[in-house]
Design brief:
alpha/beta, six-stranded parallel β-sheet, 57% helix
């Protein structure tokens, strides 16, 4: 059997082309059923995200899979082919494992891709395009991803500004579930910060934004409260953590406002993380006792250190993926050996049954029993040794000593 992986991702194609080969959630079910028809086993899985589209098939030709992809989306071969990567066998297995571990992601080690691969597998099961081989492949892949997360530090270090900001908060407060958070701004970065905070158990968040409607739209997802920028002084004394990211040309939080809030807090510490450029929080705030101010530059140095740490962990992860891909292919080969043994036994039993039936027929017609038995033994022996004899003869004539040695061992001609 030949496993095939055909894909296109952020490294090989533009956003425009990636959009054209993507599969929408409402069509992927039928697409996988259609793709499965190009395989001999009916097994196929499509992984489609904003950064990649990949087709995994069992016992299919790469040419057929590529042709199907181009036909499905109505694309020209000349436009798509240069941007595709294609893997077979063990390389296809290893690629899937690398993807699930975040080793092939835009952000090295990011964990979201594993969830996306799991969703794709679940959809393939619903579509009925999963059987023994692909089920084993994806279950092994999920185990490998878990092993990489457990045995390496690939996901431990923050490599995005939003995640680094939340990691900083965790480092200072250790437990975030009892903290009150003020988020200033309502753009993508603050939304990602809010998501990380929610994942870490923060239940009380306030989002301050110039436009209240924009803040309210974001707050609905995180069960947060929306306020306008002028309302910040009223909430600031209650905030343990302040994270700000706006496009304001002037600072939103000044030293005086923060100093007043700290007095009302009776000098309980306040963490302020300014990830805006230009700054949202005056630099002089750092001079205040009990105010811990970090800027995007502080976070960037953390990110660079953590990225180096992830690269070291990625090297360990690559070794794990390579080993597990090899083990999976051993399992595939064991299936093939089982099939070969079954076929050989079936063939031999068919020959035996045929020879025995002829012998019994001759005995029934009054044939000499000793002669019938001798004839049975000779003909059965000749039939059983015919194929091995031809193989030995061919190997000898071609001077193929390796094959000749393997045949002699298989036929028991070599002493063990």
């Amino acid at each position: 059997m030949s496993l095939v992986a055909i894909g296109i991702n952020h490294k090989t194609a533009t956003v425009d082309l990636r959009e054209k080969v993507a599969f929408s959630p409402d069509k992927i079910h039928d697409a996988m059923k259609s793709l499965a028809c190009t395989t001999k086993t009916g097994e196929a899985v499509i992984v489609s995200t904003c950064n990649r589209t990949e087709l995994y098939c069992n016992n299919a030709s790469r040419e057929d899979v590529v042709a199907w992809l181009e036909h499905y989306h109505g694309l020209n071969h000349a436009d798509v082919a240069p941007c595709l990567y294609q893997y077979e066998g063990q390389m296809a297995v290893k690629h899937l494992m690398r993807v699930a571990c975040g080793l092939d992601s835009l952000v090295l080690g990011e964990p979201q891709i594993l969830g996306q691969v799991k969703q794709s597998f679940a959809k393939a099961k619903e579509a009925g395009t999963i059987a023994v081989t692909m089920d084993r492949l994806f279950q092994n892949t999920f185990s490998v991803a878990k092993k990489v997360r457990t045995e390496t530090e690939i996901g431990a270090a923050a490599v995005s500004v939003a995640f680094a900001a939340v990691s900083m908060a965790k480092h200072i407060f250790s437990c975030l579930s009892h903290t009150k958070v003020l988020l200033i701004g309502a753009g993508e970065t603050i939304e990602l910060v809010a998501r990380h905070l929610k994942e870490n158990g923060v239940s009380e968040m306030v989002v301050a934004n110039r436009t209240l409607e924009r803040a309210q739209g974001m707050c609905a997802e995180f069960n947060a409260r929306a306020i306008t920028l002028p309302e910040i002084p009223d909430f600031l004394p209650r905030a343990d953590i302040v994270i700000s990211s706006t496009a304001s040309p002037l600072p939103i939080l000044g030293k005086g406002m923060v100093e007043k809030a700290l007095k009302q807090r009776r000098h309980q510490p306040m963490l302020l993380v300014d990830i805006a450029v230009p700054r949202d929080i005056e630099a002089e705030v750092a001079e205040l006792d009990d105010a811990f101010l970090y800027t995007v530059d502080d976070l960037q140095s953390i990110i660079e250190q953590n990225m180096a740490s992830r690269k070291e962990a990625a090297e360990q992860a690559e070794i794990i993926a390579d080993e597990q891909a090899h083990l999976f292919m051993d399992w595939i080969r064991s299936l093939e050996s089982v099939d070969s043994i079954r076929d050989y036994r079936t063939q031999s039993m068919t020959i035996k049954d045929e020879m025995v039936a002829r012998a019994l027929n001759k005995l029934a017609q009054g044939g000499d029993a000793e002669q019938v038995v001798l004839e049975l033994a000779n003909k059965l022996t000749n039939r059983l040794i015919h194929a091995p004899t031809q193989a030995l003869t061919a190997a000898s004539r071609q001077g193929d000593l390796n094959t000749l040695g393997q045949l002699r061992t298989a036929l028991g001609l070599e002493k063990q």
